[in-house]
Design goal:
By secondary structure, the protein is mostly helical. It contains 14 helices and two strands; from the N terminus they run ββαααααααααααααα. It has one domain: Orthogonal Bundle (MetI-like fold). The longest helix has 37 residues. The two termini are 29 Å apart.
Length: 305
């Protein structure tokens, strides 16, 4: 009786739009319920949300101008006026940490989006067409992946002028191979399914089949990969800035704040210059990894409701 209540076109039951929307909404609720069961993942979401809010409202939260230096207040320990102390040039560390959250998170998220777009397009084409096209495209990925990640990062960064957008570009260029390999594997398993064959039989164009039928069914696992990529980008940006190849002073980032305190005497005499940006990097990277683990479990269809 239920089948008779729905219109039939080309021997297929057409599901009303209201029912489709309900199923999508219900799926999100199921995923959220699964996610909430992972207490560590919820904690990670809370920590990351805190840093995200700090980054968004940085102009209102920072007690001092992060670009103002006063040599008379250099290397001061934490106090009421400077809760995180000051650096060797007299800059307020709390204000620079707050603005550094905006820079470091922006770089990590934008670089992740760029690398994901490149990887998804590249991997989709490779996996869908297969054959010699797939072989050539994957050999290119293998060649790039054979170079150690951080070594390749340093090579590209060293031949470019250090800046915020250069850092984003470098992270994007180096980071797209992982998503490309992953999406290619997913599409190889999806492209032979019945609904893809049906779309081909109706005469749809190949790129339409890829982006409207194949790719949406491979996006969910990529969500987990994207979150982990943000954590990796934060650490990579910090490492590049620490080595002087990333974000340049006076623009504050957690990485270049650490680079100002890399000398042993500074660490021993003025430890607060390294402790506070270091804690921010560790907590943010850890929180994103916890979110990624929680999403992986929540999106796994084998998990019980």
């Amino acid at each position: 009786m239920n089948q008779l209540s729905n219109p039939v076109v080309n021997n297929q039951i057409q599901v009303p739009e209201e029912e489709k929307e309900y199923k999508i909404e219900n799926r999100f609720l199921v995923i959220w319920r699964r996610y909430k069961k992972n207490k560590a993942a919820v904690l990670g979401l809370i920590i990351f949300s805190f840093f995200a809010l700090v980054a968004i409202f940085a102009p209102w939260l920072a007690p001092h101008d992060p670009y103002t230096y006063d040599l008379y207040d250099s290397s001061l320990p934490p106090s009421w006026d400077h809760p995180f102390g000051t650096d060797d040039l007299g800059g307020d560390i709390l204000s620079r940490v707050i603005y550094g959250a905006r820079v470091s998170l922006s770089v990590a998220i934008v670089a992740m989006l760029f690398s994901m777009v490149i990887g998804i397009i590249y991997g989709s084409i490779s996996g869908y067409f297969g054959g010699w096209i797939d072989n050539i495209m994957m050999r290119i990925v293998d060649a790039i992946s054979s170079i150690p990640y951080f070594f390749l990062l340093l090579i590209i960064a060293s031949i470019m002028v250090p800046s915020l957008w250069t850092t984003i570009l470098v992270l994007s260029i180096v980071g797209w191979t992982g998503p490309a390999r992953y999406i290619r594997g997913e599409i190889l398993s999806i492209r032979k399914r019945d609904y893809v064959e049906a779309a081909r039989a109706t005469g749809e164009k190949k790129f339409s089949v890829i982006f409207y039928h194949v790719l949406p069914n491979a996006i969910a696992p990529l969500t987990v990969l994207a979150t982990l990529d943000i954590a990796g980008n934060i650490l990579s940006e910090s490492a590049l800035s620490f080595l002087g190849l990333g974000i340049q002073v006076p623009t504050p980032s957690w990485g270049n704040m650490l680079s100002r305190s890399q000398e042993l005497t500074t660490l021993l005499d003025y430890p607060w210059m390294a402790i506070f940006p270091g804690i921010c990097i560790v907590l943010t990277a850890l929180s994103i990894n916890l979110i990624g683990d929680g999403l992986r479990d929540a999106l796994d269809p084998r998990m019980k409701r």
